[in-house]
Specification:
13% helix, mainly beta
Amino acid sequence: MPLKHILILIMLFFRLNVLAQSQPSSELNGNIETDRQLNMQNLNSSVNAVSTGLTPSPSRIQPMAPTLQAGATYNASNLPQNGTTDLWFKIPNWRSGEFHREIQTDFTLAGPKTFKSAVNHFYGFQTDKTGQIWNYVSYPYTEKVVNQNYTDIKLVIFFEVLKITNELYSIHCITNDIIVNNSNNQIVKSYQTEDFQAFKQVAQNVAEAHCHSQFFDSHGQAISESQKYLFPETRIKDYQPTNFWNGKNLSISFHNYLLANHLNNLIP
């Protein structure tokens, strides 16, 4: 064989070998498996990036209601009724309690951008007979951030757990995002977001979320842009059982959930 051909084969071999070594191992990445009919890609919860999505990525989701689209006058009565779907699921102890988020870092083509994004979240509402902590999510639900000139309203219309272990807490949700002009109460922008978040404990009382968002316009058409971002959360208050939340008796709700799922042995 001519020397030129031999050199080409050697170069090709080394290139393939480097590519193979660059692929992250499944053990490091902690692949997330779900029984959803849609085929989810792996959620990479490494400390540097998160890569997740739907395969194939959906081109459309359900459109937003006309009363929530840009140009309409915002009226809270046009929002769907909150709390029509209740979820209970176990969480690791490190994910329980009240957490505070102060900043968020977005990964853009121009490089990472960090900005203030202050909010508190609660995780863990009831404890079963074995001492295991359970979280509670009731959706749809609304989060609101009032700025000087505009109000950002995030309406969570879908929520599901992807995977929860002692090391990982990962979720998937879909939101309607509405931006309202405070001076005239007019909706100036509306869009939808499909969000994947994976949390890991990175220090005592500190969790870090690595996230990936896909955006859709208010009519449900996919927008080409997507966003990877991360944020740390610090536990500011330890877990305490909560029997009442947003007008609901959670101790009864939890009891009924365990009964309905034949988990009588876990009833406190």
